[in-house]
Amino acid sequence: MKIMTCPVNGPRAISEFVYGGELRNTPDPNTVDDVPWSDYVFNRDSTPGVKLEWWCHTPSGVWFIAERDTATDTIQRTFLFQAGQPS
Amino acid sequence: MSRLPAVQGELIDRSAPVEFTFEGNRFRGYRGDTITSALIGSGVRILGRSFKYHRVRGVLSAGGHDVNAMMQVHCAGRSIPNMRADIVQVEEGWDIAAVNTRGGLVRDRLAFLNRLAPFLPVGFYYKAFHSRRWFPRWERMFRSLTGLGEVDLTASALSTPKRYDFCDVLVVGGGPSGLAAALAAANEGAAVLLVDENIALGGSGLYARGGVAGLADRTVGLIAEVRGHPRIRVLTNTFAAGYYADHWVAAVAPECLVKIRARSVIVAQGAYEQPAVFRGNDLPGVMLASAAQRLIYRYAVCDGRRVAVLTANVQGYAAALDAMAHGIEVAAVLDLRPHPGVVSQPLADKVAGQGIPIHFGVRPIEAIATRSGELGELEFESTAGGASRRVEVEGVWMSVGFAPASALLHQANARMRYERAVEQFVPFALPAGIHACGKVNGVYSFEARLADGRHAGQRSAAALGFSGEGAHRRDLESECPTHPYPIFPHPGGKEFVDFDEDVQIKDLVNACQEGFDSSELLKRFSTVGMGPSQGKHSNMNSLRILAEVRGESIDTLGTTTARPMFHPVPLAHLAGRRFSPERRTALDATHARLGAVWMSAGNWRRPEYYEVAGKSRDNTIADEVRAVRSGVGIIDVGTLGKVEIRGPDAAEFLERIYTARFAKLGVGMTRYGILLDETGIVVDDGVIARLGPECFYFTTTTGNSTTLFREFGRLASWWGLRVGLVNLTGHYAAFNLAGPLARAVLRPHTDIDLAEQAFPYLAVRQGMIADAPCRMMRVGFVGELGYEIHLPASQAADVWRALLAHDSRIRVAPFGVEAQRMLRLEKGHIIVGQDTDGVTNALELNMAWALKMDKPFFVGQRSLRILEKMPRRQTLIGFTLPPSPAGQSARRPKECHLVLDGDQIAGRVTSVGWSPTLERCIGLALVTPRVASGTHLCIRTDGGANITAAVAQTPFYDPRSERQRQPDPT
Predict the structure, then answer these.
(1) What pLDDT, in 10s, does the model give residues B42-58?
(2) How confident is the model over B105-115, as pLDDT tens digits?
(3) What tens digit of pLDDT does each residue of B936-955 get?
(4) Cβ of A2 and B713 within 8 Å?
(5) What is the assigned CATH class of domain B495-555?
(6) Measured between beta carbons, which residues in chain B are less than 8 angstroms from residue A73?
(7) Residue of B721, B862, B863, B868 for testing the chain A interface, max A β-carbons within 10 Å
(8) How far is CA B384 from the centre of its chain?
(9) What is the topology classification, in CATH, of domain B1-153?
(10) Is B857 within 8 Å of A63 when comparing Cβ atoms?
(11) B310: phi then psi, degrees, rounded to nearest 5
(12) Where are the domains of chain B?
């Protein structure tokens, strides 16, 4: 079973985590056109590669970001999300 | 008898005889004997029948892969199928029979299939038995002809535990290289776990002894060192069956599965000796040289007193010396190579020195059976030409090469390449924390294996931060242990590549000619490698044949990956106990005493209604509804998700997640909110109460509470809002006291002022109820004066009891989920997930009052703006049927019945029921705008009859919602 390192609780079995989707920038709803907004809402980039993803350590409820290579399923680093940081 | 005099290190206890029956005859072995060794020791050579042609078969590997010697064992009232005779230790009183025979092993009536073999070419089944009409008949016939053991369907369930283990370094395989690796890693300070599939450690260091002086003694010394090492633990009789992510290995022990979490894994699983492919290579008595050596050194038995050794490596000469050392006559050594290699030469000299003829540059033609069906002669010829010759033998030992036991390495994503120097695949790029040593690494001589193991142990420890150096050195073999093409076609066929499935050379050649000429296709079409041994003895040879047919190198063809688990595992080891937790509210026992009939809601169990003796379900529910409308009822709503949010940004957070406004919501007031996803789809709804300027308490629906609370945490983190969220779902109990008399019942028990002006509709108050602190909300879900009371779970049962026992003149009627559904339907209140589905957006609910589109932002708002501009796809409407008596009727709509517009589907009924208050059927339906704008709708009911319902305004009951605002009568 895979191991993931929670930034707060340390390395734990992957069964303790849930995936929360890719970390994405939300377009400004007040200025974005309908088409790019629809694209943001309905489409996801499934190209394999290094992604920033939301993960939650469920027993403790800690949400964090994992940098994961989805081609090789290797978790490169995990860190707590800081508002305003580049994603 | 074929039992040898005592052999040093034998695993049997000659002082403890074991009696058993095989195929109806009594036999005797010793404690420690396998079924195979006990039978061989008693002179029985035929151990089973082959899967397809029902040919007689004997020993092949004696190492856990003898698929043609599988047994049905009756013992202690159980019947266990598919016991592997070559590794299962026989016990007193066992009644054993070979699997897959009809009428017994010797007189198997299905043996005629062997004569039909010429008419059953590869792919025959696919071509002959595909017609739809006849297929069921063929299927029945083949199911009865084929198959292995029989499952005892009367057997009682076994409970198999799982175990967990942890270590720094896991060494898989306890042969010489594994022992050396374990010692090296442990000596550097690592905690080592060593697993080996055999009863005892040592591997080939104990059974392939010939020609190397002191080899067994040194192996015994290594074992003693390992056993005595404080940092090494050993699991024998346990095979590592699968590698999973991050050094997690599933190990199969006799009684249970062991899940091993290691920091580093050293694969020292060795190699499977491979058979030569020639006509008659499946006759009992023809076996791998390592099988013969295992039988000698582990069990002191031999299968055949006069043998020929067919070899292409030093191991064959070693086996010949082992034979001679135990009084087994070696009739000849047949070396496929024109000359012995440099390592073989001294051993060949020893063999020749004892007068044994050695023939170089030969090829086998056929193993020939005597008239009684036993092996009698081996025919061979010189590759240089000349007449063929025959040698009279009782056994043929094949020592022509090896295939690495590399399944775990493949599963760990190691990259392998074919190395001509050793004619096998070896790993060349290993992932972090994965190491290989010994034969699986292409290292064969004893000293080299010890060195290779030592290096692997040191490397693994060093990588984990222990002392030691991380050198990578592999000693190259000076003589190739494996023949590049030990395959010898015969015009008469019966040269078996795969003993599990009776696949012959021509089957593979024909499959290639038919176009199935990649390793995966070849496997599926010919079934090579698909039997219980999963190609451990056939994949490599079939790959060699494929490469030959295609004229390509083995490296370009590549090999297939054996998926975990690569060796058969009893299903009982994998089965687990069912674990679906059921949540019970704090009032569960109270409901049970009141006669609750249970239903499940999410993970919870809730009372559907409270049973009354002599009254039907429908009437009981109707009476519960009437009690709420006319008097007072109480329902447990503790399954609601309950969340408290605090912080300077609490109101802002709620503004963003719900469609309603909260910034200016007064302290002490509540508000209904709908929660959407980013596409505008309705996800949840709830009541949000403001307890203070920076503190709110709110509820979510039962089924969504866990995932929503989690999502709230993500959003709070993403948005960087200064809020704290606490999930109080289990901490708090909740019930709703509703009905015209609710206030009267409640008043004596609480210090909260219940007067209408002091505690109006939609307000929230905190205070005491009985002895419990509580939060009380004026709600209108069921459409009557109602108080939703939230209080600590531990005190809920006492308070509930106090309210029910309060006053003998007022009956407080407990009501269940069904009555609540009708009560809210009469009010036209939606249930998210029932009246909405995964594509219902907020605009379709006709609840524009709840959507504050002029707010700066809420989740889903931007998508609703787009949807607003588009034509509506569907809309939620109410409908009624003409007045009717209570009770079921076939002509009554049900949930999910279709709404028709002409002959087109125009929607579906989402909620429907017979209203005791209105004495007619009422319901909600999601329909097209065209239907919604009409006055009637057509519903297709069970059986295909259409009924007409009238489109109706909601709420159906108390349309001006005066009852839930009921002023205080006193």
Answers:
(1) 999 999 999 889 999 99
(2) 988 888 888 88
(3) 999 999 888 999 999 999 99
(4) no
(5) mainly alpha
(6) 245
(7) B862
(8) 55
(9) Ubiquitin-like (UB roll) (3.10.20)
(10) no
(11) -100, 115
(12) 1-153, 163-272+404-463, 275-400, 495-555, 588-638+731-823, 641-727
What fold, for B641-727? Alpha-Beta Plaits (3.30.70)
Look at B713 and A63 and tell me if their CB atoms are within 8 Å. yes
B172 contact partners, CB below 8 Å, separation of at least 6: B178, B195, B240, B249, B265, B266, B267, B268, B269, B408
Q: CATH number of the domain at A3-79, please?
A: 3.30.2270.10
C-alpha angle with apex B701: B699 to B704, nearest 5 degrees? Answer: 110
DSSP state string for B231-291? TEEEE-S-EEEEEETTTEEEEE-SSSEEEEEEEEEEE---EEE---B-BTTTSTTEEEHHH
Question: What are the φ and ψ backbone dihedral angles of B319, each rounded to 5 degrees?
Answer: -65, -40
Contact present, B581 and B544 (Cβ < 8 Å): no
- In this structure, which long-range contacts are made by residues B253-256, counting pairs with CB atoms below 8 Å and at least 24 apart in sequence? B253/B163, B255/B160, B255/B161, B256/B160, B256/B161, B256/B162, B256/B163, B256/B573
Q: Domain extents for chain A?
A: 3-79
Q: Which CATH architecture has domain B163-272+404-463?
A: 3-Layer(bba) Sandwich (3.50)
Do B291 and B304 touch, CB atoms closer than 8 A?
Answer: no
What confidence category does residue B425 fall into, taking pLDDT thresholds of 50, 70 and 90? very high
The reply to whether residue A56 touches residue B678, judged by beta carbons under 8 angstroms, is no
Option in B709, B720, B861 nearest A83 (CB) = B720
Is the CATH number of domain B275-400 3.40.1010.20? no
Residues near B263 by beta carbon (within 8 Å), at least 6 away in sequence: B167, B168, B169, B247, B433, B464
The chain B residue lying nearest A3, using CA atoms, is B246
**DSSP type of residue B564:** S
Three-state DSSP at B359 gives: strand
The answer to whether B876 and B844 are in contact (CB under 8 A) is yes
Q: What number of residues does chain B have? A: 970
Cα distances from B339 to residues A18, B358, B487, in angstroms, run: 63, 11, 19
Determine the residue of chain A that is closest to B721 in CA distance. A83
What is the reported pTM? 0.86
In this complex, which of A1, A56, A84 lies closest to B720 when CB atoms are compared? A84
Q: Please give the CATH topology (third level) of the domain spanning B588-638+731-823.
A: Gyrase A; domain 2 (3.30.1360)
Strands B306-311 and B329-335: parallel
